[in-house]
Amino acid sequence: MIVCVCNAKNCRTVREVLANAPHVDTPAAAHRAMGCKPQCGRCLPTLAGMIEEVRNETAMATALAAAD
Ligand code: FES
After folding, report:
1. What is the pLDDT of residues 4-45, one digit of tens each?
2. What CATH number does the domain located at 2-67 have?
3. Which of 39, 41, 48, 57 has CA atoms 20 to 30 A from the CA of 65?
């Protein structure tokens, strides 16, 4: 699924960037990490949701690993 039409970035690319750049915590930072800039801004809410989702998954995995 295309997330950012203006920059032709799909869901897989965004998830890879978020996995490899744990400092990325905003849509603007995600664009920078993908080597582009926001243009129309329509993808910003989707990117924000994906960042939250990936960070929650990471926190859950860390908590489960610590519980073992
Ligand atoms: S859809 Fe991402 S900046 Fe336009």
Report:
1. 999 999 999 999 999 999 999 999 999 999 999 999 999 999
2. 1.10.10
3. 48
